Amino acid sequence: MRFRLTPRETSFYDMFAASADNIVTGSKLLMELLGADTAGRAEIAERMRAAEHAGDDATHAIFHQLNSSFITPFDREDIYNLASSLDDIMDFMEEAVDLVVLYNVEELPKGVEQQIEVLARAAELTAEAMPNLRTMSNLTEYWIEVNRLENQADQIHRKLLAHLFNGKYEAIEVLKLKQIVDVLEEAADAFEHVANTVETIAVKES
């Protein structure tokens, strides 16, 4: 790691960790959604909205700190990209839950639970990795595993689409369910964007 003579604003590390912890909360709410009835899903959606608002607050706090800090722990553009990608994850997860409720989906197609399990694992890995930005240590396995999980998510997504278009669903139901599984896939992509940004930061700081 490069030696620096100038002090750096270190509160970013705590803020990134808090943002990632909030994503774990969101992933747990997604898991709850799987076994919930209609009334339960509405209550989960309310809690997910609260978590998404907390995520927005965390992102705005990072941006505010970025704009008011003369010295930052790593490149400003990377801080912005990391904060934005973490925020995207929360947005996509909240959107998926909201769509399930708004569309009054009675039963999610088989395979969605696999999508959500992948997101939950990626959330755990991301939350574990964020504190390591402080020392830039033990991060390689993180981004390798998240990229592997994103590839797995791609495969699950393709199988889900094939299942939706097999002729067993009404056309309107296909449209509803496809939008939900597409948003969950976007969440998996956003996890990969976070991992790629962390890799970029680590390479620059090595």
From TrEMBL:
This is DUF47 domain-containing protein. Belongs to the UPF0111 family. Gene3D superfamilies: Phosphate transport system protein phou homolog 2, domain 2 (1.20.58.220). The lineage of its organism: Bacteria, Bacillati, Actinomycetota, Actinomycetes, Kitasatosporales. It comes from Streptomyces galilaeus. It holds the Pfam family PhoU_div. InterPro entries: PhoU-like_sf, Put_Phosphate_transp_reg, UPF0111_domain.
